């Protein structure tokens, strides 16, 4: 019902007037948003009735309080809007008006029309009103009450005021409640974070295994350390810088995990800051060194800084202990919480006192940058960094176990951090592996194409398993003309070496043996032999070699000594020593000066100047040295664990190239090509590999089976390749094995020239003379079955095989390399 009195002439009340929420039946509302009563000022005049704020409508005592929600601080609230005095006066006036209304209406459900009284706020709008109230904290307070009322007042309408019992009730709850949309969004974000984190963990673990040579890169290529070392980006200088950068990041990440993991927001913000600092650090300290632009970027800020303390200070006591200021950004840029990161909320964590490599003004908050006394190993550092990053992603998953914790700010920070990890770590490494694997696959496909296109597959007997169509007389050699050496050694023969001197009419052969002696034989053109000299070691002799002029013999053995015998004076001197037995020795020339090189089981290769008892230089190898060979300026070293080291003797103190043997079992022998363009490798598995030094010739690399018995009852007997020798004129080569046979091969034609029957025992050493007309091979026990099988009945002898013209000559139809 409408009131019968005339309409009031007062102005409309503001919709959000503070007096609207007062109630006489409940406790008086605090005067400030913080919950404290306003301080009374003596100079403040008593509140006066205002034409803009009419008395509020007083609800019935039985009705609930429509808003009992605490409000947050506002920046400029006026005490006149909510002072206790004014509230009491307005309440009394409201009570009188309510009494008049009740008496005139005659009932509780009376609809009154009063333009001075705003309608009640519906229950369903309370949450929105509270949100608007919180957002209003960020709005600057108006300069006056008039401006505030004008800003919040509504346009004058003919609205009616309802009694408390007739106020609008919230509508029935719909099935599509807003919280359902919010919950659905959190579920989607949570699923995305889980998927990305698990994917990144799998990627990092795969990269770690690929660097360790434990998996085939997408089932194509198995990368070992030598393969990685051949990548263009794995240059030693760049690798050292990258390893240092990765080490610093790996040292800094555990600090974030341990100290900043109270909440997802705090953890992800700190992680983003660390990755941003690391990205800046990489730009200033790149793999190529500090650039001029980077230097200027680092020094320019310091020009305007005052020289002061060693670390930055925070601006408040709260920041000193890691608590951020209590302020929320309207655009979501700051998310509150304990330990939040800001420009002044965290102390500097870098080791500034020892950062000798940092540029002026270069200071980091989360990135640790200690000085390192050594260059870390890249492979170990990268593997450990992958493990640490896996722990970081695992920590993220533990901080957001359910969709409830996965808010939009958390998902946004996680996406930024993951993008930085991909950019800094993952993308570059994956690209390097993809490029290298693509190159390897192209090489393999090219090799397969050459094999398929070859027309003479019928002559590839023993090499690729194809049967030979040639007659046995052309492929099987004859041993009837072989001559035994007079007075052979008394124990196993370890090495054979012919003198390379061209001015000698006779051939001189040095034979080292496990009987601790080195014997020198003179061999006449008719094949007759005669011993000329012998000298001893204190243990079994394992290797020997001749000087270029044919006047000196070098030897090394189990007594750890390197000895030199001058055949002119027949004097023997000790020129060097290792910590373990010396397995192999060779002569070479450096700038016209005769030098010696020795490889030992102490994992070193040492260079000797015969005029000095101390080594001229030394090389540390990965494992024990089993075999070495020299041709011109090429030195090849074979070690345990199948490592092959290539050295350019023009720069003898560093490895020119390091690779893993393409053969899967222990390396027994390496032998250089006659033209020093590459080398051959023999292993205990009955295989031989041809390897070229330069990468441009990599398409010519191959391996083949040899020294194996024909399969019988699904069993194949495999024998070790004990020695490989190259013909000095034709460039073809021989292999000899534990099966007691030797063969001549043409590597360019990939063709076996001749095979010879068993000689009655294992062949332990072979060599060609300077013209290639004599092939010497030693028959003795090779210790392949242990000392139990070294019986007195086992033959020990040196045989001389006259090489016929067609035995070692390469095939005329194939172009010689």
From TrEMBL:
InterPro entries: WD40/YVTN_repeat-like_dom_sf, WD40_repeat_dom_sf, WD40_rpt. Residues 1-115, 140-179 are annotated as: Disordered. SUPFAM superfamilies: WD40 repeat-like (SSF50978). WD repeats lie at residues 534-575, 575-618. Keywords: Repeat, WD repeat. Belongs to the WD repeat rae1 family. This is WD domain-containing protein. It comes from Colletotrichum simmondsii.
């Amino acid at each position: 019902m409408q009131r019968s009195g005339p309409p009031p002439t007062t102005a409309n009340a503001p919709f959000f007037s503070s007096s609207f929420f007062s109630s006489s039946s409940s406790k008086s509302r605090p005067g400030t948003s913080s919950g404290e009563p306003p301080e009374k000022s003596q100079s403040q005049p008593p509140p006066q009735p205002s034409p803009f704020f009419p008395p509020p409508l007083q609800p019935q005592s039985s009705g609930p309080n429509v808003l009992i929600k605490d409000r947050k601080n506002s920046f400029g609230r006026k005490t006149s809007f909510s002072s206790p005095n004014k509230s009491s006066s307005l309440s009394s006036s409201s009570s009188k008006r309510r009494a008049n209304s009740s008496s005139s209406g005659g009932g509780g459900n009376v609809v009154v029309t009063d333009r001075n009284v705003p309608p009640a706020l519906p229950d369903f709008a309370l949450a929105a009103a509270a949100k608007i109230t919180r957002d209003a904290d960020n709005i600057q307070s108006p300069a006056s009450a008039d401006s505030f009322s004008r800003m919040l007042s509504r346009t004058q309408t003919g609205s009616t005021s309802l009694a408390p019992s007739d106020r609008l009730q919230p509508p029935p709850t719909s099935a599509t409640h807003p919280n359902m949309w919010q919950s659905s969004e959190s579920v989607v974000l949570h699923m995305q974070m889980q998927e990305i984190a698990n994917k990144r963990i799998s990627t990092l673990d795969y990269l770690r295994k690929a660097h360790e040579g434990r998996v085939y890169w997408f089932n194509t290529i198995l990368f070992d350390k030598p393969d990685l070392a051949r990548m263009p980006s794995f240059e030693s200088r760049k690798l050292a810088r990258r390893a240092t950068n990765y080490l610093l990041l790996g040292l800094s990440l555990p600090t974030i995990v341990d100290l900043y993991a109270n909440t997802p927001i705090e953890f992800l913000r700190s992680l983003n800051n660390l990755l941003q600092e690391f990205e800046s650090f990489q730009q200033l300290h790149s793999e190529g060194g500090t650039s001029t632009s980077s230097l200027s970027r680092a020094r320019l800020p310091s020009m305007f800084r005052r020289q002061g303390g060693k670390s930055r200070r925070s601006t408040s006591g709260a920041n000193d202990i890691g608590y951020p200021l209590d302020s929320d950004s309207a655009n979501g840029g700051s998310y509150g919480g304990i330990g939040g990161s800001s420009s002044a909320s965290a102390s500097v964590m870098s080791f500034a006192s020892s950062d000798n490599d940092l540029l002026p003004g270069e200071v980091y908050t989360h990135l640790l940058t200690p000085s390192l006394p050594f260059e870390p190993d890249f492979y170990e550092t990268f593997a450990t960094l992958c493990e640490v990053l896996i722990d970081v992603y695992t920590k993220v998953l533990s901080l957001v176990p359910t969709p409830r914790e996965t808010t939009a700010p958390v998902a946004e920070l996680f996406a930024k951090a993951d993008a930085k990890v991909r950019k800094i770590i993952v993308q570059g490494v994956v690209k390097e592996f993809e490029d290298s694997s693509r190159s390897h696959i192209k090489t393999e496909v090219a090799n397969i194409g050459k094999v398929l296109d070859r027309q003479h597959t019928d002559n590839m007997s023993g090499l690729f398993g194809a049967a030979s169509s040639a007659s046995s007389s052309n492929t099987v050699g004859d041993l009837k003309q072989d001559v035994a050496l007079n007075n052979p050694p008394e124990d196993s023969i370890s090495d054979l070496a012919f003198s390379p001197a061209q001015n000698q009419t006779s051939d001189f052969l040095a034979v080292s043996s496990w009987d601790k002696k080195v014997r020198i034989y003179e061999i006449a053109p008719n094949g007759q032999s005669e011993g000329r000299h012998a000298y001893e070691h204190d243990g079994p002799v394992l290797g020997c070699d001749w000087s270029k002029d044919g006047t000196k013999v070098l030897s090394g053995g189990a007594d750890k000594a390197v000895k030199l015998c001058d055949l002119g004076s027949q004097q023997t001197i000790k020129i060097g020593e290792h910590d373990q037995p010396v397995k192999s020795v060779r002569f070479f020339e450096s700038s016209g000066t005769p030098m010696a090189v020795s490889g030992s089981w102490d994992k070193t290769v040492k260079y000797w100047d015969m005029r000095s008892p101390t080594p001229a230089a030394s090389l540390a190898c990965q494992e024990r040295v089993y075999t070495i060979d020299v041709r011109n300026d090429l030195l090849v070293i074979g070690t345990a664990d199948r490592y092959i080291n290539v050295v350019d003797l023009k720069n003898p103190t560093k490895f020119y190239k390091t690779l893993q043997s393409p053969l899967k079992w222990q390396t027994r022998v390496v032998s250089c090509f006659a033209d020093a363009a590459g080398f051959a490798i023999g292993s205990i598995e009955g295989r031989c590999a041809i390897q070229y030094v330069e990468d441009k010739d990599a398409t010519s690399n191959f391996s083949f089976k040899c020294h194996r018995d024909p399969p019988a009852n699904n069993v194949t007997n495999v024998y070790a390749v004990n020695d490989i020798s190259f013909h000095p004129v034709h460039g073809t080569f021989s292999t000899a094995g534990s099966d007691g046979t030797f063969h001549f091969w043409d590597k360019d034609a990939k063709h076996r020239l001749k095979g010879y029957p068993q000689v009655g025992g294992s062949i332990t050493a072979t060599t060609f003379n300077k013209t290639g007309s004599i092939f010497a091979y030693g028959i003795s026990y090779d210790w392949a079955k242990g000392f139990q099988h070294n019986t007195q009945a086992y033959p020990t002898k040196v045989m001389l095989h006259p090489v016929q013209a067609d035995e070692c000559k390469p095939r005329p139809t194939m172009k010689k390399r």
